[in-house]
Amino acid sequence: MFDSLQALPPDPILALTPAYRADPNPDKIDLGAGVYKDENGNTPVMRAVKKAEQTLLAEQDSKAYVGAGGAAGFNEAIASLAFGETLKQSLGERRVSLQTPGGCGGLRLAAEFVAQANPDATVWVSDPTWPNHRPLLGAAGLEIAAYPYYDFDSHSVRFDAMFESLSAAAAGDVVLLHGCCHNPCGADLGREQWREMRDLALDKGFNVLIDMAYQGLGDGLKEDVYGVRLLAESLPELLLVSSCSKNFGLYRERTGALSVICRTGPVAKAAMSRLAATARANWSMPPDHGAAIVQTIMEDDGLRADWELELAEVRDRINGLRAAFVRELATAGVERDFGFIEREKGMFSFLGVTTEQAESLVRDYSIYLVKSGRINIAGINRANIGYLVRSLAELLGS
Ligand code: LMR
């Protein structure tokens, strides 16, 4: 019966990594998958993570099951990080959180939960959005619609068009917003725009699902959750997916969480039983190791301080690279204004090249980027920035 199956095209992001590894060109540059790289092109294990692992190795005395909802200590730590202690307290029993296999697990769980509550819900995703959003959310059986988000000419958020489009969302629909460091464009909503989104959600009665995969990589741990906290304190319901892949560097450990805010405590209790049962039917229990690391860090003042410090180093390096890249392009005589790259946040920006130009960068220059022209800024370093800028100058004809 398997003979009827046709092979699918490779994943547009993940396929770049093996292609890069196999490329013998010594000048090759990996600006593909959203994985942080340091100045030497390595993706290090964070210092606090290493120490927490040593603690776990010495002290963990059982590998018995934890449960479908994961570790309570991790769930509370991740909710505190997202909402802050005061708001978390005031949400009280209206908020539940559940450990998931990465942010992807959280998104899928959120979609299945929405499908149980309202099978007719349409999920609205930004145009453009992370390519995995549609398959992840759509596989739960929900209809997906797109709202305009990024203007490739002005390199900014098309807020008026977004607002107008989402004015057509029905009560009970779900609008997916990126919490910070929009993937793929790096252009985030401003504070006033978040307030307008809140008012629109209240006015139209749609629900908001926030995907927060980059807390701490934009402006700071607190600054990056302005929108999350605003919506959590003012909307009757909210879904929030947190990922620890990037800010804890735990990619392969698949560590994330889904938090759901409901109108009342009893509804949240019912929601939790649904979420746990849905998790059980999918993966039974989330993997433990990454969550145990995060919990260990968050419950130890010293480790937490060192984690925050290293995260600030990561953030500062990315923001410094953004500025250096824009500067070097101008110095090389590239006429096009790339100043937007310096204003955008997180790991990603669009270079603003055509699909053909993106393909040429991979094929002719061994510079690996997503076909959409998205680059991972963290893949740039002092050793490769010269080659990158020279190649772009040649490609863009300046
Ligand atoms: C990315 O967007 O490159 C990352 O989130 C990695 C992934 O899973 O696609």
How can the largest sheet be summarized? 7 strands, mixed
Global geometry? globular
Tell me which oligomeric state these chains represent. single chain
- Total discrete domains: 2
Spans of at least 5 consecutive residues with low confidence? none
Number of strands: 13
On the 0 to 100 scale, the average pLDDT is 97
CATH architecture of the largest domain: 3-Layer(aba) Sandwich
Q: Which secondary-structure class do the elements indicate?
A: alpha/beta
CATH structural fold name of the largest domain: Aspartate Aminotransferase, domain 2
Number of helices: 15
Tell me the distance between the termini. Answer: 55 Å
Helix share of residues?
40-55%
**Order of SSEs:** HEHHHEHEHEEEHEHEHEEHHHHEHEEH
Which kinds of small molecule does this entry bind, naming each only once? (2S)-2-hydroxybutanedioic acid
Strand order of the largest sheet: 2-10-9-8-7-3-4
Specify Rg, calculated over alpha carbons. Answer: 21 Å
The CATH superfamily of the largest domain is identified as: Type I PLP-dependent aspartate aminotransferase-like (Major domain)
**Strand share of the residues?**
5-15%
CATH class of the largest domain: Alpha Beta
Description:
There is one protein chain. Strand 8 (207-212), helix 9 and strand 9 form a beta-alpha-beta unit. With 398 residues, the protein is an alpha/beta fold. Helix content is 45%, strand content 14%. The chain has helices spanning 16-22, 47-59, 72-83, 85-91, 102-117, 133-138, 159-166, 191-204, 226-234, 265-282, 289-298, 301-331, 339-343, 355-365, 385-395; strands spanning 29-30, 95-101, 122-127, 143-148, 150-151, 156-157, 174-178, 207-212, 238-243, 255-261, 348-350, 367-368, 374-376. The strands form four sheets. The protein has a seven-stranded mixed beta sheet, sandwiched between helices. Strands 1-12 form a two-stranded parallel sheet. The protein has a two-stranded antiparallel ribbon with strand order 5-6. The protein has two domains: 10-44 and 303-396, Alpha-Beta Complex (Aspartate Aminotransferase, domain 1), CATH 3.90.1150.10; 65-299, Aspartate Aminotransferase, domain 2. The chain starts with 15 loop residues before the first helix and ends with a helix. (2S)-2-hydroxybutanedioic acid binds at residues 13, 33-34, 130, 132, 183.
